[in-house]
Amino acid sequence: MKNLLIAASAVKRLATQLANFTDKVNLFEMQADGSVTHGGEPVSLADIDIHCGWLSSDIMAAKLTRDYAISLLKSSTLEWVQSLSAGLDDPFFTKLAEKGIRLSNSDAQAPAIAEYVVASVLQRYQGFDIRKQFQNDAKWQANDFKEIYNSNWLIIGLGNIGQLVADRVTAFGGNVTGVKRDPNRANDYPLIGFDNINANLAQQDVVVLACALTADTRDLVDQAFLAQMKPDAIIVNIGRGDLVKEDELLIALDKDAIDFAVLDVFRTEPLPEKSRFWNHPKVLVTPHSSNRGLGTDSRGDSLFLANLDAYINNKVLKNEVNTTELRPAV
Amino acid sequence: MKNLLIAASAVKRLATQLANFTDKVNLFEMQADGSVTHGGEPVSLADIDIHCGWLSSDIMAAKLTRDYAISLLKSSTLEWVQSLSAGLDDPFFTKLAEKGIRLSNSDAQAPAIAEYVVASVLQRYQGFDIRKQFQNDAKWQANDFKEIYNSNWLIIGLGNIGQLVADRVTAFGGNVTGVKRDPNRANDYPLIGFDNINANLAQQDVVVLACALTADTRDLVDQAFLAQMKPDAIIVNIGRGDLVKEDELLIALDKDAIDFAVLDVFRTEPLPEKSRFWNHPKVLVTPHSSNRGLGTDSRGDSLFLANLDAYINNKVLKNEVNTTELRPAV
Predict the structure, then answer these.
(1) Which of A318, A296, A299, A298 is nearest to A307 (CA)?
(2) Minimal Cα–Cα distance from B295 to chain A, Å?
(3) Do A175 and A152 meet the contact criterion of CB atoms below 8 Å apart?
């Protein structure tokens, strides 16, 4: 038997599916107040050997992430954790890696984030604001619009998310170049390494930051980077705020060195009220919510259940992270 | 030698490319005022045998379409016409067909229209208006959004345009069913016939009208059609206004029988100022301009030049219309 620490609300939602694991998994349910129950009775985690965990959206939504992470890290028997996110720059994951605990990240949010990225660029290209104005004025006037067709995209980081962005852009007839740490591995798309980014920026209409935050990628987008971009280029950050030197991005936007920034992540989150990004006419701000597609949670549930089954049966986990390659973000 | 009637502005733009045809094609240039010149000298079309024509965007933009069409139809030697549009419901084309004149339509606008369709649905799904409001208020608040991923699309008419819409939707993980006159021909997508549309509407999240206007498709979208649609479904019309009974669409929108209508074409164009579509909160109106992507004209130029070469050399024309199948729209 394996002991699973799981959000009580997730147990309620997935009661039918979890019933299949009754003789293999004991459920320890974290309630909304952070307390833990087993079979309806309160228990103390100090008395329990936890073997596996699922950092689900329930835990995040209930603001239990810290309690939950601490509980898992305290258990000397921990073997596997399923994360709800793609990024692994949180120190929690580094600690798991140090302890040799298996870790699988999530691609459940990838389709949602890919839609957000393409939609945000189309939003800028199509001119819906102008259209709305003409419509309000009952004015039969056309607007010419930029096309993704034949545009050039540099997708920095071709993981689960970057790959889906690339597939969608390609279907529109756009041209994709990917950036990966090892650009020599086989891929569907032409690849360059991180050291060749700046030399390739002058051709790019859209630059998407979809890479992990590591000591190497921190501050990747700085004055030198932005200076290579085209004045009509768009930058999209759905990775991490620390990938971008925000002051230098603001300067580039102010002097029209680039056309637009789509920013879902920031160095400080929530974005401080005094940030100039909020009311900058060339910036779309969203609150780290590009993952909030209505299908993300059910895809996350399916991934967890499939991986729970794989874990129990000693099979390969989907999205298992090679934790020996996990690189610190600082 | 073949005599080509062509817009003077097109000759100017494509001077280099047309130079390759000097010993095979005589250029008769229609000026902005409708007069025609040859080698810089005014000529009367009554004295000239015209063999081929190109109804280009230049002709449209200069509002010379009627003059141009009449000039072509008067010529007893006419052999081939290249159109700039996909639709062939204008009586001009029926007349050409009756005379047995070769006709090629255009797919140059298809990538632009496909982007417009997907962008308009994403515009509705993503909630950019709410995002903008939150941003204006410096409010760190997420919005959940609908996804194309796993949504169901019925694409009525899988010609050049419908096909490109289908490819893009599929790349997003959406499910496409196509409607064709002959649903038994092989296709990349599952097909149904026009007589099965209503029975399939209840499953559809998005319905796209991308079919030709014929006597059979006129008034296709009526009360019975709309009554089968889901209350959260979107209808997109980039075909022809006469495909839709507009009064019945307005009633369906008013009583929330469907969620939204994206309308680029109307029964009367320009859309009359008094039309309720202009200020309906559940309608996006654009002025027959979904083709106005910035790449459309150069794709149209390339298509014309390739087909001029094919015509001169008795080769197969790209997008040649089987005019024996051309069905009247009335």
Answers:
(1) A318
(2) 7
(3) yes
The DSSP line for A184-218 is TS--SS-EE-GGGHHHHGGG-SEEEE-SPP-TTTT
**Chain B residue with Cα closest to A141:** B287
The closest CB to that of B145, out of A118, A284, A292, belongs to A292
Reading across the β-sheet that carries A175-179, which strands appear in turn? A191-192, A175-179, A152-156, A206-209, A234-237, A260-263, A283-285
Q: Which of these, B15, B6, B31, lies nearest to B81 by C-alpha position? A: B6
Best CA proximity match to B105, nearest among B141, B158, B174, B55? B55
Domains of chain A, earliest start first = 2-108+295-325 (3.40.50.720), 110-285 (3.40.50.720)
Q: What is the pLDDT of residues A86-126, one digit of tens each?
A: 888 888 999 999 999 999 999 999 999 999 999 999 999 99
DSSP codes joined into one string, A227-267: HHS-TT-EEEE-S-GGGB-HHHHHHHHHTTSSSEEEES--S
Q: What is the DSSP letter of A320?
A: B
CB contact (8 A) between residue A126 and residue B119? yes
What is the predicted ipTM? 0.94
User: How distant, in Å, are the alpha carbons of A95, A197, B12, B236 from that of B225?
Assistant: 59, 52, 48, 14
pLDDT tens readout for residues B250-308:
999 999 999 999 999 999 999 999 999 999 999 999 999 999 999 999 999 999 999 99
Beta pairing class for A283-285 and B2-7: unpaired
**Residues A156, A221: Cα–Cα separation, whole Å:** 11
Contact between chains at A118 and B122 (C-beta distance less than 8 A): yes
Q: Please give the Cα distance from A24 to A3 (Å, whole number).
A: 9
Interface with A, mutate which of B148, B297, B299, B302 (most A CBs under 10 A)? B148
